[in-house]
Design a protein that fits this description.
single chain; mainly alpha; 5 helices
Length: about 150
């Protein structure tokens, strides 16, 4: 079930990347952020009321959202620089992606390290839900700059 998200992203990204040549990448990327936000919100609800189908639906929505966001976003970034700076632009994109991953791990670690989770499944579930809520809010905030840019 966990493969639903990356497989959908891998299958759809080439299509969304070429689609961003015809449609404003800001629209596609912002739509992707909206879908990712919805998927994370579904996962935050699902922590308290676990459902296989809700997890699958959330991962499908997130996979489609990442496909809509990643390829058009990279296309817009790389299309905004001259070929002379492709290497630098690609490096910046990779660096920002890794910083985001590191900050995500730091946020999860901070939330899960709150006292009382060791040996307490209910508290652990509460903290996992808090993490999903935080990431849902961060994604919702990310919709604004994604939508505000132009091609």
């Amino acid at each position: 079930i966990l493969l639903l998200q990356p497989v959908l992203m891998a299958l759809l990204s080439p299509f969304t990347g070429s689609l961003s040549d015809r449609i404003n990448p800001a629209i596609l990327a912002s739509s992707g952020m909206v879908l990712i936000t919805i998927g994370l919100a579904l996962l935050s609800v699902n922590v308290s009321f676990p459902s296989f189908w809700l997890i699958a639906l959330a991962l499908i929505i997130i996979g489609i959202g990442f496909a809509l966001f990643t390829a058009p976003n990279n296309n817009a970034i790389m299309g905004s620089v001259t070929p002379k700076y492709y290497g630098a632009a690609s490096s910046v994109v990779s660096t920002v992606r890794l910083i985001g991953q590191v900050l995500s791990v730091a946020i999860i670690t901070l939330i899960l390290s709150q006292s009382g989770t060791a040996g307490n499944a209910d508290r652990l579930i509460d903290h996992i839900q808090e993490a999903f809520i935080v990431f849902t809010i961060l994604c919702a905030i990310g919709i604004v700059p994604s939508a505000a840019r132009s091609k």
